[in-house]
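Support request, priority: normal
Reporter: lab tech (M.K.)
Component: structure prediction queue

Hi team, I submitted a job for HTH OST-type domain-containing protein from Collinsella stercoris DSM 13279 yesterday, and the status page still shows it as pending. I've pasted the exact input below so you can check whether something in the sequence is tripping the parser. The sequence length should be 110 residues. Please let me know if I need to resubmit or if it's stuck on your end.
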Amino acid sequence: AAEACACDDLEDDGEGEVAFGEMSRADKRRHLRAIRCAINAVIDSFADEDGWVSLGQLGDQLSKRLPDFDVRNYGYKRLRPFLKSLGVYEFDEPTGESGKRQIYLRARDA
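Reply from support: The job had stalled in the queue. We restarted it manually and it finished. Here are the results:
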């Protein structure tokens, strides 16, 4: 079952930018819920039959859907640690034929 989403919670409300660290606890929860909503929408749109989507494709799609989203605003240098911190995604890192590792993720079963 998909989480009820309010992706428009990330829309500018006309009150100007507020740093994530300065938001109230309720606003942080609402903001992260909206980000999870966008992530889940990308997973739903681009995942394979087993629910996996590549981390690269997820990052590309997030930057299109949420152009102002930057994991550095949340204290992370890279997308993967940020996603792991949300605690709702599982990761797989198979090594491809070329020996290069590809990272995939999907939503954990509730």
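The mean pLDDT is 85. Residues 36 and 77 are 18 Å apart (CA to CA). Let us know if anything else looks off. Ticket resolved.
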